[in-house]
Every structure is written in structure tokens, then in C-alpha cells.
Amino acid sequence: MGMRVDPTFEEFVERASTTLLRTAYLLTGDRGHAEDLLQTALLRTARRWSQARGAPEAYARKVLINLSRDRTRWLGRRPAEAPLPPDPDNLRVVDAGYDRVAERGVVARALARLPTRQRQVIVLRFFEDLSVEQTAELLGFSAGTVKSYTARALATLRQLLAHDQDPHYLEVPNAQR
Amino acid sequence: MPSDEQYGRYLGLRLHDELEEVHPAPDLLRRLRRLRARRAWAVRAAIGTPILAAAAAVAMVTTSGAGLQARTVPSPDGEVQLRNVSYVQEQTVKALSRASEYVIYEKTTYSGGYYETWYDKAGQRYRNNTYGSVSIGAVDGTRVVAPDQITPGPIQLLQSHAVSGPPGDQTIITVDYQRRTWSTDHMTDTPPASAIPDITEPETIRQAVKDGTLELLGEETVDGSLAVHLRIDAVQRGYQVDMWVDAETFLPIKMTDTVPGEQEPRVTMTYSWLPRTEENLAHLELTPPPGFDEM
Asked: Does any CB of chain B come closer than 8 Å to the CB of residue A54?
């Protein structure tokens, strides 16, 4: 028959979109791409809602990871792109949050310097608070590989953040903005 | 020096702190609604679904011993019949085969608001209104607000959609009352399946039963009407649907959708079966209000 609005999806969006956006931002290091990834991940989750609704966060997170991986591969095959045009409707509200990360996001910027897989592991293990096994399943790695990437990533982050005592004022040496 | 695990947890906390003011755009949900509408927003493929033969439907019934309750009722021709789950499903499928004779009004209630939908199967069209709360402080875009600092506003009409045409060739009119805009889209892609079975469709009832088990839980009173309570339990498909059909007409009058493992239903729907009068069909019309901009 006709359209069946499923409000449980909208409740899920309201509940989970902030965390998913922050994860997307850490995975991509770019505001515009993070918002694109979030929107696409949510739409795909909506289209598969009958399968996803039992554990929608996990489903959307999986889509997000896959999309960020696809994007990384895609970026590797094309010239650097110009930033997305700003959406004037939302700029005033959302800009300040991103500005704050740009100004004070010492750890976020150090994270952005890691290789993709190491970055994914750190985000899932310590930002999303997933177990080694959950992270391994999500990324399609073995648990040993996750542990190995984690160790390497943390060693790099210790170096990058060696002089960081106060997240409000110290900068990561040679950090890329 | 902290262990790797300790250091990782410390960095995780730092990241949460650094990103605590990053929030999705306030109109994310609105944009998703619109994009989903353009991409066949949870539209059923069932317009014009062939009517099932009642006998075939009965053959699909999977009964649960615990839920199988039976009682004798007089049939229209005076014979005494056994009212069991097969009988109720047969009567319900028969009743639904006449759904195109009605304008169906469906009200979907959930924690954040409600939806109203009018269906006219004979005309292959439907229209809905979305009511919800607009968060005060998040709409005008003048300041940064975290979701837990937003004050929910009163429930109000947010969007309406009017859809007409068969699946794959549908026209959608969307009116956005917050933005004071309206648009027309043409939808050609195949509608996706919905998570919640459409209990006004015989075919969907058949499929839902095929996906799980159907139980007859007995007779109850719903809004003053005697109703038969049925339960479709499809754990593998991720839902448990309780439906109440009118004890006389066997048309659905209420449905709840519960996620397996949860106590309370996530969604409650009620149905009114209205005659196809001009007055009732007028609910299907959607005209953009004066002063709204076309997008």
C-alpha cells in the first residue's frame, strides 16, 4: 500500500547521530566528509531498517567504516579535492564545534596523522569503546592484527603527543591542520 | 608510564572532550526525511497487491499450541464454526480483500510525536502528516546547543507528503511547514521493504505469518469495541506484531510493534476504516499553503 513511516528509525537518528558524526569526523578528519558519511550511512541504515533495527548503532557504524574505507581508496586514486561548499543554513550552529576541535583538538589532529587502519583501530577501541574482538569483526581483521595496529598506533601517538601537557594550549609538533 | 590500555583509554577521554561540541546539523532529520522521500521513502510495494485466496492463506498459517484458543461462533448461514487462529486469519484476509472500498486512516504514535496517514488503495494514493517537537534553540541557528540542553517544544505539524501512482511511477508532493517550502518529486525506484508489516494488506499478513508464527491470544475490548487479539512473532525478522481485528468485521483496528526482548512496544498504530466519501477522500489532497516557496 502506501508509505509506512517507521518512527523507530527517527528515534535512532536522534539518539545516535552525534556519536556517529564524531566517529566519522575522527575517521576522515574532515567536517564535510564526516557529514556526508553520516548522512549516507543513515540512509543506508534506513533502507535496511528491517535488518538493522535490532542493533542499529552497530549496523550504522559498520556502514560508516566501510564508507570511510571506500573514501580512502577513492582519494588515493584522484587528485586532491576542494573543500565542500558550506551550507549557510547550518554554519552558525555547527561551526563552533568544529572550530573548537581545530583549535584545541590536539589528540584529534595527532590521530589524523596515523595510517588509516591504525586510526580506525584507535577510534573503535578507545573512542567507541569496543573490545578487541568487536573491533576485529568490524574491520575484518584478526584479533592479533587489531592488537598489533593498536600497539603501533599508540607508540606513534605517544611520540606525537610527547610534549602535550595541557590540551588547551599545546600543539602537536608539525601537526597538519 | 601508563600501559597501552591505560594510555588508549586516556586518549579516548581526550577525544570525547575535544569533540564534545561537535553535533549534527539541526536539520539532519528533516534532510533525511526529504532524501528518503525522494528515494522511495519507505513506500510499500503493495499498492494493487493481488488478493489472496482465503484458502491459500489458511494453508500458510502456522499455529502455536500455546496460543491456539478456539470457541464456537455462529456463521452468517447459521452454522456453528470453530473460531481458531485459522478461522480468524481467513476472515481477516477476506476482510482486507475489500480494503479498497475504504479510506483507511492510520495513526502512528511513538515517544517523539505521531504520524497520520490516509490511504486510498482504489486510487493508489496516500497522504501523511508528520507531527513532532521542534527543539527550541536548535532551529534558528543562532547559537550552539547540545542535544541534552535543548528544550523540546510543543508537538506541531512538521511535514506532509502526498503520494500517488503505482510503485515505480509515483509522484510525491512534500510540504515542509518549518521551512515554509514545498516540492514535487517523481519516484521511479523500487520501494524498499519496511520493517513493520503492513497489516492492512493480505499479502503482507501472509508474508508475516510465513516469517514467523501466528497466535490467537483471545478476545479483548479496544476503545469500546470487541476485538480479536492476534500476535505475529518473527524473531528472526526482528519484530513482534500484536494486532487486534474487529470481532465483527475482522478489519484491523490496532497494532503494536515490539522489538524482541523489549517490554514496551516501540510503535502503536490505530486504524479507522472510513467510507470513500468526498469528505474522507479530501484528506488525501495536499495543497501547499499560500506563501510557501517551491523548491
From this structure: yes
Q: Which of residues 89-108 of A touch B (CB under 8 A)?
A: 89-94, 96-98, 100-101, 104-108
Q: Which fold has domain A105-177?
A: Arc Repressor Mutant, subunit A (1.10.10)
pLDDT band, very low/low/confident/very high, at A126 (cuts 50, 70, 90): very high
* Percentage of chain B exceeding pLDDT 90: 20
CB atoms closer than 10 angstroms to residue B226: 12
Contact B119 A2 (CB under 8 A): yes
Look at A106 and B58; give whichever has higher pLDDT.
A106
- Asked if residue B246 has pLDDT above 90, the reply is yes
Rounded to an integer, the average pLDDT of A47-67 is: 85
Of A13, A21, A51, the CB nearest to B22: A21
Number of domains in chain B: 1
Distances (CA, A) of A160 to A53, A131, B57: 40, 25, 67
When pLDDT is averaged across residues A28-47 and rounded to a whole number, the result is 86
Residue B254 domain boundaries: 32-294
Fold classification of A1-90 is: Rna Polymerase Sigma Factor; Chain: A (1.10.1740)
What's the whole-model pTM score? Answer: 0.55
**Residue B194: what pLDDT?**
57
Shortest Cα–Cα distance, B231 to chain A (Å): 18
Answer yes or no: are the C-beta atoms of A2 and B163 closer than 8 Å: yes
Tell me what the mean pLDDT of segment A4-29 comes to.
Answer: 84
For the domain that residue B39 is a member of, what is the CATH number?
2.50.20.10
Is residue B2 assigned to a domain? no
Rounded to whole angstroms, the Cα distance separating B229 from A3 reads 25
- pLDDT, tens digit, for every residue of B103-140? 999 998 876 678 898 999 899 898 988 887 765 444 44
ipTM score assigned to the predicted complex: 0.78
Model confidence at A50, pLDDT cuts 50, 70, 90, reads: confident
- Please give the Cα distance from B87 to A106 (Å, whole number): 68
B173 touches chain A (CB under 8 A): no
Of residues B9, B26, B144, nearest to A96 (C-beta): B144
Eight-class DSSP state of B235: G
Please report, in angstroms and rounded to a whole number, the separation of the first and last CA atoms in chain B: 59
* More confidently predicted of B87 and A82: B87
Contact status of B161 with chain A (Cβ, < 8 Å): yes
B170 touches chain A (CB under 8 A): no
CA distance B69 to chain A (A): 30
- Residue ranges of domains in chain A: 1-90, 105-177
Virtual CA dihedral for B89, B250, B279, B294, nearest 10 degrees? -30
* B71: in domain: yes
Query: Using CB atoms, which residue from B32, B141, B266 is nearest to A90?
Result: B141
Pair A5, B128: CB distance under 8 Å:
yes
CB within 8 Å: B35 and A17: no
